[in-house]
Amino acid sequence: TPLLSCTLRTNTCLCLVTFKLLLLYLPQEHDLAPPTNLRFDSVDYKNVLSWSPPANGSSLLYDVQWKIYGDPDWLDAASCRGTQKLRCDLSSETSVPREWYYARVRSASGPSARSAWALSRRFSPRWATRISPPVLKLKVSQQKVVVQVEPPRLHIRKMHSSLQFKIYLTHPSGEEGALPGGPPSPRKLTLHLRHRQRYCVQAQTQILLQAKSSARSPPTCVSTL
């Protein structure tokens, strides 16, 4: 009947208006600004992704995903899902040096408010990581100095059969000399030096296959007996 038809139309209009009003107050997908300035920082293959919060984003949470270059699927970084931090250690996820990787981060607030994903640049652990200088331990015995050299992380030694250490010796006169070496590089050297003289030793980590070198370690100085 005309009256019933009118009532149905009125109820339908009321439902539509109510639904639209609800949408205005519900959190919407992508109604948050995404994080910015995504960047990888890698030292000794410890690969850490960091980012900057969007404006007025002090109380936001963040979700992190990663993938290998060329793969279609993104994977969750389980330890960085809903994190409050502005960094995520992806060393385990990006542990194959020869691969290239992407990461992405989004802002989150509440149960359903999410931003669009912010994408990192393509990242290669092999080429991007910086190598730290080795750790030196010196032991003096009469006119001998025993130099023990260790990489800063055991992971470096396991990954590279071409790992080498270059050792520099500074004499009392100030003259400096590099000790000859080649792979396999010795972990311990015995230097026969003059009696009651002060010597300083530095070392440098080198990865021959990548033509990659660390900075020198700080000078470690000892006096012979």
UniProtKB/TrEMBL annotation:
<dbReference type="InterPro" id="IPR013783">
    <property type="entry name" value="Ig-like_fold"/>
</dbReference>
<comment type="similarity">
    <text>Belongs to the type II cytokine receptor family.</text>
</comment>
<dbReference type="InterPro" id="IPR015373">
    <property type="entry name" value="Interferon/interleukin_rcp_dom"/>
</dbReference>
<dbReference type="InterPro" id="IPR050650">
    <property type="entry name" value="Type-II_Cytokine-TF_Rcpt"/>
</dbReference>
<dbReference type="GO" id="GO:0004896">
    <property type="term" value="F:cytokine receptor activity"/>
</dbReference>
<protein>
    <submittedName>
        <fullName>Interleukin 22 receptor, alpha 2</fullName>
    </submittedName>
</protein>
<feature type="signal peptide">
    <location>
        <begin position="1"/>
        <end position="27"/>
    </location>
</feature>
<dbReference type="Pfam" id="PF01108">
    <property type="entry name" value="Tissue_fac"/>
</dbReference>
<keyword id="KW-0732">Signal</keyword>
<dbReference type="InterPro" id="IPR036116">
    <property type="entry name" value="FN3_sf"/>
</dbReference>
<dbReference type="InterPro" id="IPR003961">
    <property type="entry name" value="FN3_dom"/>
</dbReference>
<keyword id="KW-1015">Disulfide bond</keyword>
<feature type="domain" description="Fibronectin type-III">
    <location>
        <begin position="34"/>
        <end position="128"/>
    </location>
</feature>
<dbReference type="Pfam" id="PF09294">
    <property type="entry name" value="Interfer-bind"/>
</dbReference>
<dbReference type="GO" id="GO:0005886">
    <property type="term" value="C:plasma membrane"/>
</dbReference>
<keyword id="KW-0675">Receptor</keyword>
